[in-house]
Amino acid sequence: MNIAINNISILEAQAVIVPVFAESEEVSLGYVSDIYQYIRSREQFKCEQGEVFTTVKFGEVLPQDIIFVGLGKEEEINGEKIRIALAKAVKKARELKAEKVYVDFINTESLCYGATVKAMVEGLKYGDYKFDWYKTDRKEQAELNIGFGNVIEEKYKETEDYIKEGEAVAEAALLARDLVNEPANVIYPETLAEEVLEHGKKYGFEVEVLDELQIEDLEMDAFLSVAQGSDKAPRVIIMRYFGDIENKSEILGLVGKGLTYDSGGYSIKPTDGMVTMKSDMGGAAAVIGAMSAIAQRKLKINVVAVVAACENMISGGAYKPGDIIGSMSGKTIEVLNTDAEGRLTLADAVFYIVEKEKASKVIDVATLTGAALVALGTTTTAVVTNNDEFYNELETASRKAGEKVWQLPAFDEYKKMLKSDIADLKNLGGRFAGTITAGLFIGEFVLERPWLHLDIAGTAWTDAERDYYSKGGTGAGVRTLYYLAKRASRK
Ligand code: BES
Ligand code: ZN
Ligand code: ZN
């Protein structure tokens, strides 16, 4: 998709997208005004948020399809509503086989200008996303050419930059969706590492990949215990971006859960729970996506990201319920359930990022517990933290991003649930408060650094098309991490 200002005239456009607020008595695009008045007066179109009304082209009288899309009330507008509306409109344009699309720009005082532009760009890009390249009858689609019309002339330059930023963020979120949607026979630790190497080259961050021997040298026993049941060798993928070299003591550490497949191991999952477990690297996808956007936008900040990638499988060599394993930190862990594997891999990854990469703050992102889905559903990411100030930064960023987060309590009583009788910790906190205890387990390995744990088990995947998400991976976390890094980079 190519998006620019004024590069498509109304005359050459095959479709025209006209976003309208509910109270608008007319539209700024004069030549469709009569049609608008007509469909409004007949109540064929009520301008409700996300509502689409299309007129069909009719020779010279109406030489293109007009796609009206409702934005709801102007005083209630926000980025999310714009993304949803534009995603629906662009889907319609595709359906109508348009390749050149004129988009009437949304000029409003009710939302900050940059947020408006970026949300428009994101909505268009998300709405046009499809994961269909395994379908052999798939038709190659032409690239969509989008032209923003009605942009105020004095604002051209800043609009262009906001378009670029919106594109970078959307591309990063769609990269994360792709990585999650790719099946586990295609994306496994080695191939994931290759993908990251490629994206590092493309966007400008350094990538180092550790193989099994190097991981053994680091004594990442907890991570290696999870990995040992699989024929696919594990990898530790390290991404480094130093945009603020004068400030080397401040390094934001991002850690993503990278289970390229989670069968549950000997605590095996039922088939229904297993089929979507290619998505258990959604946290890894989020940090890879965020890293791409951060580097592409050349933010003035230092960020290191780590993914400990492996598969959780069954074999004669797999780890078992009852095993006592070590960890890079030296702490011992009693394994009560091999399906609680994410926290084991993350324990070593977060310890590594603090100890070896000198991260001064840590955020881990993980599809960690089904309990997060039970507690908050599919729209909200659960957060556990040891630092409320850091959480506030995350919340601000999430609002900018249009993603939702909610903090869970982290009282000492919950930490006690992880004590083992025969080792330092156990990997299961019991039946209750599963999301909290899982998060706090990871928190035991961050060496008291300010830390946020994002459980995206509910938000990383959607079973049905919704808003601007297609079925499958959602790219959850990418935008929030990007805006958090961007805010931190201003200081
Ligand atoms: N990857 C799963 C969590 C998950 C479940 C993600 C559903 C997305 C959708 C994780 O490794 C897991 O299996 N967790 C267990 C933990 C339990 C054994 C304490 C769970 O949630 O059941
Ligand atoms: Zn599991
Ligand atoms: Zn898992």
Automatic annotation (TrEMBL):
<feature type="binding site">
    <location>
        <position position="257"/>
    </location>
    <ligand>
        <name>Mn(2+) 2</name>
    </ligand>
</feature>
<dbReference type="InterPro" id="IPR043472">
    <property type="entry name" value="Macro_dom-like"/>
</dbReference>
<dbReference type="InterPro" id="IPR023042">
    <property type="entry name" value="Peptidase_M17_leu_NH2_pept"/>
</dbReference>
<keyword id="KW-0479">Metal-binding</keyword>
<keyword id="KW-0378">Hydrolase</keyword>
<feature type="binding site">
    <location>
        <position position="262"/>
    </location>
    <ligand>
        <name>Mn(2+) 1</name>
    </ligand>
</feature>
<protein>
    <recommendedName>
        <fullName>Probable cytosol aminopeptidase</fullName>
        <ecNumber>3.4.11.1</ecNumber>
        <ecNumber>3.4.11.10</ecNumber>
    </recommendedName>
</protein>
<feature type="binding site">
    <location>
        <position position="339"/>
    </location>
    <ligand>
        <name>Mn(2+) 1</name>
    </ligand>
</feature>
<keyword id="KW-0464">Manganese</keyword>
<dbReference type="Pfam" id="PF02789">
    <property type="entry name" value="Peptidase_M17_N"/>
</dbReference>
<keyword id="KW-0963">Cytoplasm</keyword>
<dbReference type="InterPro" id="IPR000819">
    <property type="entry name" value="Peptidase_M17_C"/>
</dbReference>
<feature type="binding site">
    <location>
        <position position="341"/>
    </location>
    <ligand>
        <name>Mn(2+) 2</name>
    </ligand>
</feature>
<feature type="binding site">
    <location>
        <position position="280"/>
    </location>
    <ligand>
        <name>Mn(2+) 2</name>
    </ligand>
</feature>
<dbReference type="InterPro" id="IPR008283">
    <property type="entry name" value="Peptidase_M17_N"/>
</dbReference>
<feature type="domain" description="Cytosol aminopeptidase">
    <location>
        <begin position="337"/>
        <end position="344"/>
    </location>
</feature>
<feature type="active site">
    <location>
        <position position="343"/>
    </location>
</feature>
<feature type="binding site">
    <location>
        <position position="262"/>
    </location>
    <ligand>
        <name>Mn(2+) 2</name>
    </ligand>
</feature>
<dbReference type="InterPro" id="IPR011356">
    <property type="entry name" value="Leucine_aapep/pepB"/>
</dbReference>
<comment type="function">
    <text>Presumably involved in the processing and regular turnover of intracellular proteins. Catalyzes the removal of unsubstituted N-terminal amino acids from various peptides.</text>
</comment>
<keyword id="KW-0645">Protease</keyword>
<dbReference type="Pfam" id="PF00883">
    <property type="entry name" value="Peptidase_M17"/>
</dbReference>
<comment type="similarity">
    <text>Belongs to the peptidase M17 family.</text>
</comment>
<keyword id="KW-0031">Aminopeptidase</keyword>
<feature type="active site">
    <location>
        <position position="269"/>
    </location>
</feature>
<feature type="binding site">
    <location>
        <position position="341"/>
    </location>
    <ligand>
        <name>Mn(2+) 1</name>
    </ligand>
</feature>
<dbReference type="GO" id="GO:0004177">
    <property type="term" value="F:aminopeptidase activity"/>
</dbReference>
